[in-house]
Design a protein that fits this description.
The complex is a heterodimer of chains A (about 120) and B (about 450). Chain A is mostly helical and about 120 residues long. Among the domains of chain A are: about 10-55; about 55-90, no CATH class. Chain A is built from four helices and no strands. In chain A, helix 1 crosses helix 2. By secondary structure, chain B is an all-alpha fold. Chain B folds into two domains: about 1-60, no CATH class; about 70-435. Chain B contains 21 helices and no strands. Chain B has helices spanning about 1-60, 60-65, 70-85, 90-105, 120-130, 135-145, 150-155, 160-165, 165-180, 185-190, 195-205, 225-235, 240-250, 250-255, 265-285, 290-305, 310-330, 335-340, 340-370, 395-405, 410-435. In chain B, helix 10 (about 185-190) runs antiparallel to helix 11 (about 195-205). The longest helix of chain B has about 60 residues, at about 1-60. The N and C termini of chain B lie far apart (about 100 Å). Classes of the chains: A mainly alpha (about 120), B mainly alpha (about 450).
Amino acid sequence: MINLPLQIDTISEGYIILATGLFIVFSSLILLTVFFKLGVPALLNAYKALKGLGKKEEKKETSVVIKSEKDFTGETAAAIATALHMYLNEQHDNENAVLTIKQARKLYSPWSSKIYGTHQKL
Amino acid sequence: MKKVLIIFGVLSLLIFIRPVLGLNTTTKDTNSQGIEQLENVENESFVSEAFEGIKQFYNYTGFANVTGGHLVMIIIGIVFIYLGIKFDYEPLLLIPIGAGVIIGNIPFVAGNMTGIYESGSVLNFLYFGVVKGIYPPLIFLGIGAMTDFSSLIANPKLMLLGAAAQIGVFATFMGALYLGFKLPEAGAIGIIGGADGPTAIFLSSKLANGVNILADGTTVKNLIGPIAIAAYSYMALVPVIQPPIMRLLISKKDRKIRMKPPRAVSQKEKMIFPVAALILTTFISPSSLPLLGMLFFGNLLKESGRTERLADTARTKMIDIVTILLGVTVGASTQADIFITSDSLLIFGLGALSFVIATMGGLFFAKLMNLFLKGDNKINPLIGAAGVSAVPDSARVVHAEALKSDPHNYLLMHAMAPNVAGVIGSAIAAGILLSFLS
């Protein structure tokens, strides 16, 4: 712990907290930034390199995939996804608008007919 | 024939009844006085007792105990509900809180385990989750399971905008100190600038909960209610507060800057993000572990691809349940006698100020970053305003504001990056304040 003088007024303590707090917030987010800017790509490359060690032929293929990925932006993905979504889920809208009403005909059946119960003689 | 029978029957009945009535009249004479007196006494005592009972009942009703403060707060509750329904300002929060404000301000006689501040009452048990800071981490779990960090992973430098907007937290903290609040109270008020309801409730429940005893022997004030209400109401008012500041600080030319679309982010990166960010941020600020731990855990559930069921529950049913409980109990904690103080007014003033400062901090820092960026990489300074978390409202406001100056400039995805970084930033700031002040 830092040894602060005993009678320190709250305002100056506030400024200490202000400065250190802002410093810590910035430093932690800068750390995150740096990690994701440099650390993660390095990690992923190392992973790929490790994976590629065993299979040298496949290494070429993966590099090709990365090149094509560069042009594959979110917009393209969104367009493809929208097209798929429309195709799969909104086909219903293109249905034939002509309605055909089939007549559901009730065939006569005597199984519960009342008339058979009324004329029975005991 | 039937008619004759009926008439005969009725007549015979009348004849039989007659002696019964006659007997009554004769017996009455003997001890009528006693009975009458007794009846009188009984009547009197019955009437007076009933009257007393009604009087007592009336004393227990809200009509007898109502004060001006209750009425004011009930009207505020109704206004909240009205705003939520009519203008669609965060209805999921304002309507539970508004209903809670009405529930908490129904006047009652203390001592019957009704009020939220009486230990043992049902509302008090539900309020326990607020006082002990249980609800906010659960909400963060749901938020983590909802949030897509890919725009942040694609463009990590936008993370700094989330840090810049935390200037609002610390500036408000200083402002509260100058207005005479104690250090822990000022810390809790400052976090309103983080524009994050759960974080504000979490920190105020730890610092300004009315239980902690300060170094000079006084008990800290209970500011959870005012702080939570201020944080949530200003979050709902982001579409009103932010645009004028944006227009004031950012030139028309800058508002038209188009940003290149973010690169596609692989699933591996998305999976690494929650784990790495959890470890890095909580190593720096361990006090924010309850919030950040749950946030990144929720995100891991979402991105791992194997726990879709858990993520689905976390982001739908669970967060709904907790939001309901949190909203109602925070609303109910605004009992007039505790809520209507000059402190609450000051907190509301400081809250508005903190949102303004946070927005300005984000905008200025975005401008500053633009000085170092060149050509295609320049960022639209408007997205700095999304650094105050208030997910996803401030990002939407940025998007709408950019569309006003250029109808084909879609900034939503870019604005989401500082937006979620703001959540992380305010949680870290809360952790720092907590470790300094508790």
